[in-house]
Amino acid sequence: MRFYDISVALSEDLPGFPGDPPVLLQPAGQAFALTELSLGSHSGTHMDLPGHLGLPGETAATLPPERLIGPCRVWDLSPWPGPIDAGLLSRCPLPEEGRVLLRTGNSRLWRRSGFCSEYRSLTADGAEWLVAQGLQLLGMDYLSVEKADGDGSVHRLLLEAGIVVLEGLDLDRVPEGRYELICLPLKLAVADGAPCRAVLRCLEIP
Q1: In the Cβ-directed half-sphere of 166, how many Cα atoms lie within 13 Å?
Q2: How confident is the model over 164-198, as pLDDT tens digits?
Q3: What residues are labeled active site?
Q4: Contact predicate 48/155, CB 8 Å
Q5: Check: CATH 3.60.40.10 for 3-9+41-202?
Q6: What residue spans define the domains of the chain?
Q7: C-alpha distances in angstroms, 3 versus 44, 124, 167, 202?
């Protein structure tokens, strides 16, 4: 049985979205080794929830685990450059699993120093197409599903439809195919989202 860890390691060198709190890891123990953590709720691999835009919905502490654990499909969009719109997404198999992760080639950006604003992102009509498919979770392989200078409309389309948005994934070594997603956030009593650890378990031989 093969697993893929699709999370990024939290470190002070990890790129962050402009304006977000940086990740700070400071030694704090005396008798025993201890690390003081300082980070934003959207650092590294994390999920966006409706409260990210002030919408009503589950918090990171109350979100049912069954929303975040179950069959998932990885779509490899890296051969097609440009924005991720409805025309491109319609070439992919219909997401019967209810959970889709988009492998775009953005994962290579994790190896760069600092934030890169030229990542591939989802368009509004692409978000509308995914909503129409009844999706319950969407994952993206960089810090935002929406372009860096977006107005929040893509996030709003997804979050208003109740779709959990999983951002900050590393899908560089994950082949396209069907998997089981296991993704649990830190149990924070906040509504906007939380860092999480995400892994994929193979359901088929690629």
Answers
A1: 31
A2: 999 999 999 999 999 999 999 999 999 999 999 99
A3: 52
A4: yes
A5: no
A6: 3-9+41-202
A7: 20, 32, 19, 6
Burial class (CB in 10 A: 0-12, 13-18, 19+), 195: buried
Strands 99-103, 69-76: pairing kind: parallel
> pTM for the full model?
0.94
Alpha carbon 155 to its chain centroid, in Å, reads: 12
- For residue 11, give both structure tokens: 């470190």
* DSSP 8-state class, residue 30: S
39: left (phi over 0), alpha (psi -120 to 50) or beta: beta
Per residue in 102-160, pLDDT tens?
999 999 999 998 999 999 999 999 999 999 999 999 999 999 999 999 999 999 999 99
